């Protein structure tokens, strides 16, 4: 009994350590890109306004995150779709990739405070990391040159990274971690996938037939509203951040 408890504590500490390293790496990468490649393209915002925008959009994202729902025709019910990356992506287009990562982190922290976790924190880590894999590339590409074409290119690239990285991350780390921390045999999880798709026989086919399509749908469902809403919401954010794409006067000259 003592050995089992010690093993559980060790596994949880290892998972917490992995979470901390992943979060630090994502923030460090985003900050490095802003400080080098995007140095001249990131809008200058005072710290109070920066914090206000991140907090406001993070709270909206948290609400949308709580309103998630399963797509049982595509993946097992513990995989859920939500639209929380819409305000995150808008924030990243507005503030830069670091702002997007901070908003994503605020969303997850608020969700944990209000609702807690039902997946031994694995689902929360997955949502953060996979969300950042979508938001950061899109924000970086958009901030290279703030035009509608680059916004579309960024969202397409972000969707591709979301599908590829999200699929690999699930196969290599998330599914084994979920099985271990949640006390569920990996074979049982694969069986849930088999119930949805007869072609699912192992981890590889599970992520190909269940995870990848779900991430593709998510990328599309976030990208389209972002393109529709970003300029509209900029009416509110325009007084806080100067952005050529956000400013209606410069919009036509950029196309």
Strand fraction equals under 5%
Low-confidence segments, given as residue ranges, are 243-255
Q: What are the secondary-structure elements, in order, as H or E?
A: HHEEHHHHHHH
By DSSP, the count of extended strands is 2
Structural class: mainly alpha
Radius of gyration: 19 Å
Distance between the termini: 67 Å
What average pLDDT do the residues reach?
85
Helix content: over 70%
Q: Top keywords for this entry?
A:
disordered C terminus; 2% strand; 255 residues; mainly alpha; 2 strands; two-stranded antiparallel ribbon; single chain
What does this molecule look like?
This protein has 255 residues and is mainly alpha-helical. It contains 9 helices and 2 strands, in the order ααββααααααα.
């Amino acid at each position: 009994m003592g050995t089992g408890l010690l093993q559980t504590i060790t596994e949880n500490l290892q998972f917490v350590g992995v979470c901390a390293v992943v979060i630090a790496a994502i923030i460090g990468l985003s900050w490095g890109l802003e400080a080098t490649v995007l140095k001249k393209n990131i809008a200058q915002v005072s710290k109070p306004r920066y914090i206000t925008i991140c907090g406001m959009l993070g709270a909206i994202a948290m609400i949308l995150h709580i309103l998630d729902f399963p797509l049982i025709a595509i993946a097992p019910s513990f995989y859920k779709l939500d639209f929380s990356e819409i305000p995150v992506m808008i924030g990243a287009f507005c503030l830069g990739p670091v702002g997007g990562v901070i908003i994503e982190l605020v969303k997850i922290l608020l969700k944990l405070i209000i609702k807690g976790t039902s997946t031994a924190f694995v689902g929360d880590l997955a949502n953060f990391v996979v969300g950042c894999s979508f938001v950061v590339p899109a924000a970086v590409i958009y901030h290279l040159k703030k035009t509608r074409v680059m916004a579309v290119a960024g969202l397409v690239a972000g969707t591709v990274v979301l599908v590829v990285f999200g699929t690999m991350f699930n196969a290599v780390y998330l599914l084994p971690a979920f099985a271990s921390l949640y006390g569920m045999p990996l074979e049982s999880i694969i069986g849930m996938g088999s119930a949805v798709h007869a072609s699912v026989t192992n981890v590889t086919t599970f992520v190909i037939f269940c995870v990848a399509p779900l991430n593709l749908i998510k990328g599309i469902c976030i990208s389209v509203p972002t393109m529709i809403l970003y300029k509209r919401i900029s009416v509110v954010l325009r007084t806080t951040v100067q952005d050529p794409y956000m400013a209606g006067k410069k919009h036509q000259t950029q196309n």
